[in-house]
Amino acid sequence: MYRVYAVRYGHRDAVPAAEAFHKEHAAPAHGMDYFVWAITNGQRTVVVDTGYGEAEGTRRGRTFLRSPAEGLAQLGIDAGQVEHVVLTHFHYDHIGGVALFPRATFWVQDAEMQFYTGRYATRPAFLGSIHLPDILSLVTLNYAGRVKFNDGDAQVVPGVSVHLASGHTAGMQIVSVETAAGRAVLTSDASHYYANIEEGNSFNTFVDLAGVYRGYDRIRELAASPDLIVPGHDPLVLQRLKPVADGIVEL
Question: What is the chain's alpha carbon radius of gyration, rounded to the nearest angstrom?
């Protein structure tokens, strides 16, 4: 069985209600946190997402608290030795740190690479969420044989799987993990906040709104209980999960 950790590396103080929720909703007073996730059983380690680069985050007005590699090191995980990294989608705050993982294979969905190297990626509705050098780095990694493509569900290692949940992006994927408490789901941006999935109120960035709602259904199907659903950006993650170190909590 695996243990699952959320490692906070960045923060944003204020998020307009119109951005955080598609339908009318009171503004979330708790802002937005930025995490990478570590899944480990002592023998195998899988990292989920790589965070944003400090320069790009600062340019966008985000607070960069520390390198994700520094946070992982507090858990005894050397980013330079990690072999499996799941990239849930290609937004700037999820793929900006691939260089921190020089030995890793990066797990992505076919649809995500196709979309962000395709005809619609340059439309303003989508372009604002990516940092072009990050996309180019993944193309380069693909030619180096370090990208593992999937079309739907796939097992990364025994007990850890990815599942297509397109909606927020064309190839958005979530991660399920077998833990001592049952199967947990890391939603990443398939549900930014607990309130998104709990209230059925999508974050207001998406390519397919119906797909977002299908993703909520899939998350609920996979998780052994609602307590084992972990959203991608909610500061409440630090309150609901078990504190391990500064900005690090365990499911």
Answer: 16
